[in-house]
Structure formats: structure tokens, C-alpha cells
Amino acid sequence: MASSTDPKSDQEYGKGAPPPPQPRPDAPAVVNYFAVDVALRVLLFAAAVTGVVVIVTSDQTKWVPSINGGINGFGYRKAKFNHSPAFIYYVVAMSIAGLYALITILASISVLFKPSFQTKLLLHLAFLDVLILGIVASATGSAGGVAYVGLKGNKHVGWIKVCSTYDKFCQHLAGSLAVSLFACVLLVFLTWLSIFSLHARIHKY
Amino acid sequence: MASSTDPKSDQEYGKGAPPPPQPRPDAPAVVNYFAVDVALRVLLFAAAVTGVVVIVTSDQTKWVPSINGGINGFGYRKAKFNHSPAFIYYVVAMSIAGLYALITILASISVLFKPSFQTKLLLHLAFLDVLILGIVASATGSAGGVAYVGLKGNKHVGWIKVCSTYDKFCQHLAGSLAVSLFACVLLVFLTWLSIFSLHARIHKY
Question: What transmembrane ranges does the database entry give (chains A, B) (predicted)?
């Protein structure tokens, strides 16, 4: 991992602006967590892409009783993620998370060997990670809430179970939701890592 | 607002442990945001309590067609938040957020005039705020997803609208969800504030 003790890099910082304070000689060494950060973001990207692909490929067509007549009162009926606004929101949120992961992987890699920009990037990453966590967590909750109604139904208001008919559709949903829960955990860890790294720099400079 | 430039307080830090580094003479002054932090947490507490009270008092009983017979095929039927697991999760999450807000208000007030503990508290608050944000955002999403099905129904799977019958119940739901969305925004701001305060201390010590 790159260390942030290179004095030359500190001198490169902000041409024209006053030079930042040099590290204190009595300060403890700062461990650089950007390699861990990049690894977590790669996992986040993989989780987001998996989550989107699994839910988008969940289409299932079944031969079920049809309200529109059909043959002997039966007809083909399709279950698709875009039949519910909650799942559309979920796909949009996971796509945003995937795109965000990709951009921040590049940003994190680009400062791996430029210690002078690391503190500023940590601040911005922590800010944005929190926002993306809010979006992904709410999307996971929203899709999970609707999927649970599909799984168990709700006898109080007469909403029927869907998963007993559309088994493949619901398996895809469950898989995608598990992955997005993992993405939420990753985002919490990423934010914690940025905050911890910022905290570790307090007694360094 | 209390300032963290009091050298006596720094010397009180950690009896037995090595004394922390003194502020650099060339460092810019650090603004102390703990008063803002306390104000935001009071708002969060108010939002959480309001959200819980509004959804818990949403019971509504209506004279509707009954599947169990009743008088002329009609009967009284109650809508209550605990008929849906999503709303139960929502109430639990908002209660946790309220309790958390209460505890952290006391913690923030207690360090207002003890600058030596502020950095450590900021770190812990930022860590916990992120967790609570994840919980509240997912609960808001989950309750919102189910409430939306109640409002619009879903013709693809034959889930009927509920809000056309239970108007008061749905108004309470909508009010509570608006408040919890506000709580999510507050939690994002609180995390940002803690992160920003930590960052501001980097060139101070």
C-alpha cells in the first residue's frame, strides 16, 4: 500500500495555494486503506451488476386462470419486474450504485500513488457513500416489502400470493435482494473506512 | 459554541496515556459544530416520535363487503398498521431511531464543553449515524413500497386498492412516511456534519 509520508508529494500540493502543513515528526504512521477501499468498491460493482442482471432476467410466463377468458378460462400470463414500481425503483437504484462504484474505483486507484489528494478524496467519498447507501437501502426495503407480499400474500386486504405460481420469478427476486443487502453492508463498511481513514489523519498532519 | 483550542482540556486527555499532540500554531481555527449537531438530533428525535405516533394511531374500521358473511354480506373490517410486516418493521426502525437520537443528544451535549472528547465522539457518531440511516432508509422504503400497492393496487397480480376504502388509514401512512423521509435527510446531514468536522480537525492537530 502507498504511504502518505512522501514529502515531495506534499510539496506538489496546490500550486499557487499556500503549502499544507508538513507531517509532525512525533505523529504515528498513517496506514493507507485505499487498496482495501478499491477492493470493497470492486465487490460493490459486482454486487450491483449481479443484482440488476438477476432481477431483469426474472421474466416467467405461466398458464394460469385468466380473467379475460382465453381457452377454457385459462391463458398465458407473464410476471416481469416492471409490473411493480418498487422493482423499477430498485433496478434504477442498483444501476446508480453500479455506475457510482465504477467511477469511484477509478478515482480511488488514481490517488493510490498521489497522497496529497487522498484526504480530499476521502471526504468526498464518505459524503457520496452515505447518499448512495440511503438510495440502495431504501430501494432494497421497497423491493423487499413488495416481494414479501408476493411471497406470503396479505389475508387482511385479500392480496393473493404470487410466488406459489411464479416460482422462478420469485427465486430471481430473492437472489437479487440478497445481493443488494450485501451491497448495503459493503456501503456501510466503505463509509466506515473513509471515516476511519479521515480520523487516522487527524494526529498525522 | 465551545472552541477546542483550550490547551488545559487537551492536557486532561487520557490520564496515564501519552498526551496527545498540541494544536499547531499555524493551524486555522476549528469551528465547533456540536451545537448544530444537537439541534439536528433534536429534530430527528421529534421526527421519529411523530412518525411512530402517526402510524400507530392510524386504525380505521369500515363497513365493507365481508367474505365471512356478516349482515347482508357486509361487516365491520379494521385496517391497522400491524396487518403488514413491512409496517411493523417500520415502527421498530423508527423507534430505534428515536431512542438513538435521544441518547446521542445527551452524548453531544455532554461533550459541548469537553473538547478533548469531541474527536472520539465524532468518530463514533459518524459510525452509528450511518447504521441508523441504513435501517431507517430501508424501513421507509419497505413501508413506502407496501403503501404504494395499497394506494394504486397492482392489476398484474390482482392486488386491490385499499386506500379508496380506508382513507384515514392511508392519510396517516402518508404523513408518517413523509416524516420518515425527513428523518432520512436529517441522518444524511448528521453523518455529513460528523465527517466534515473530522476533516476540519485534520490540519488542526
Answer: 38-57, 87-113, 125-151, 172-195
